[in-house]
Design brief:
The protein contains 16 helices and no strands. Helix 8 runs parallel beside helix 15 and helix 14 packs antiparallel against helix 16.
Length: 389
């Protein structure tokens, strides 16, 4: 029999996350941060009213799968094609710089090579959602620098999801894994991506054909979500993270004729229940009890390299790509924010044993600071260019 207390915890989470999200929206900050903070306030870190449990964790898993599925549907392939070359190289160098900086800081504080690399991966993913929100608020979403920043952040998402798939395959024994095992992992990844691309192409054609024959129907969203969970399951069967399958499933629908309807219905399902629980669950699992002076110094250093790595790495490539100094700075700043993908990565890292719970709060702080600093710096970088509100 289900423990009746789960209904109370869900009610508390939904009310508190919505309240905090609205509060953050009023002060022009990302609502996602408010939901995350609600979980921290409810959990052992502050009030201690709620604690992590298996039922909440299962609901949170649904939330993260739907979140990545929606992110896949929001991928603008046309925009990627228009700025593919510049966005790709900016993304590659920016992500490599962030991973390298995260690795260096973590290794300097005595962490293992695998954990240090994982922390670097966790801080490398730019939040496409927050970048879009900030640029849209300033009326710069379709500007030259805005388009490049969005394209690069999309590539970031894809790269980090692939890296997470590799790390998930490596597991906790990644430091001593054989060359044959590494080859096997990459073979599984390649096989899954080939399978996903082929089935995604077929699904895309089927949905467009069905739409042309019978028009918009609510059942399409049911089939799409079923495909999402099927791909999440198959990703696990191939030894990858389930979110890899969910993200790719979303991309399969991003060019369908009814993508807006599919995205709206999926977002409604996720937004109403599962995503708030996912974000709150991360907060519930956050504890600052073990944060001694050494961890505080590590956190400050990690925040610094998280911000600077994107400005320097992305900005430098943009400058070499013939963008002006100001445009290069805008692109670099636009890549600062870490958000949903970073939260997904650290959540998976704890579950897979790839990251110690001791540094979990440090990455949470990175997310908080980056999403608060980015909009401020971005507005300053566009100062004098007629920002629209």
């Amino acid at each position: 029999m289900v423990d009746a207390s789960i209904f109370l915890w869900v009610a508390l989470i939904l009310i508190s996350t919505k309240f905090m999200s609205l509060l953050f929206k009023r002060v022009h900050m990302p609502q996602m941060v408010g939901a995350l903070l609600a979980g921290i306030l409810l959990g052992p870190a502050v009030l201690g009213w709620a604690s992590p449990n298996e039922a909440i964790s299962v609901l949170a898993e649904f939330g993260v799968i739907l979140l990545l599925f929606t992110a896949g549907m929001e991928t603008d392939l046309k925009e990627l094609k228009n700025s593919v070359k510049s966005s790709f190289f900016i993304s590659i160098v920016g992500a490599a710089t962030a991973i390298g900086a995260g690795f260096a800081v973590s290794a300097a504080f005595g962490m293992s090579a695998l954990e240090s690399f994982f922390i670097g991966v966790a801080i490398a993913a730019t939040s496409t959602t927050i970048t879009v929100e900030a640029l849209h608020e300033m009326g710069k979403l379709k500007s030259k620098t805005g388009s490049i920043a969005i394209g690069a952040s999309i590539f970031d998402d894809i790269m980090i999801i692939v890296l997470l798939a590799v790390l998930a395959g490596l597991g906790t024994d990644g430091e001593t894994i054989s060359a044959l095992s590494i080859a096997t992992i990459f073979a599984r990844i390649v096989a899954f991506f080939i399978f996903a691309i082929l089935t995604g192409y077929v699904i895309n054609k089927i949905f467009n054909w069905m739409y042309s024959r019978i028009g918009e129907k609510g059942r399409f969203s049911i089939f799409a979500i079923a495909y999402c969970f099927l791909m999440a399951y198959l990703a696990e069967m191939f030894g990858l993270a389930n979110i890899t399958g969910a993200y790719i499933a979303g991309i399969a629908f991003c060019t369908t004729r009814n993508v807006e309807s599919l995205e709206t219905n999926t977002h409604t399902l996720s937004y109403m229940l599962f995503t708030p629980i996912f974000l709150a669950n991360i907060g519930l699992n956050t504890s600052f009890e073990a944060m001694n002076a050494n961890i505080v110094i590590f956190t400050v250093a990690l925040v610094a390299v998280t911000i600077l790595s994107k400005i320097v790495g992305c900005g430098l490539v943009a400058k070499l790509s013939k963008y002006s100094t100001r445009e290069s700075l805008q692109i670099g700043i636009g890549m600062i924010a870490r958000g949903e993908v970073s939260l997904v990565v650290i959540n998976k890292g704890i579950a897979l044993g790839l990251m110690s719970a001791l540094v979990f709060p440090s990455v949470i702080v990175v997310v908080f600071v980056s999403v608060m600093v980015m909009p401020i710096l971005l507005k300053l970088s566009f100062k004098g260019e007629g920002i629209q509100t």
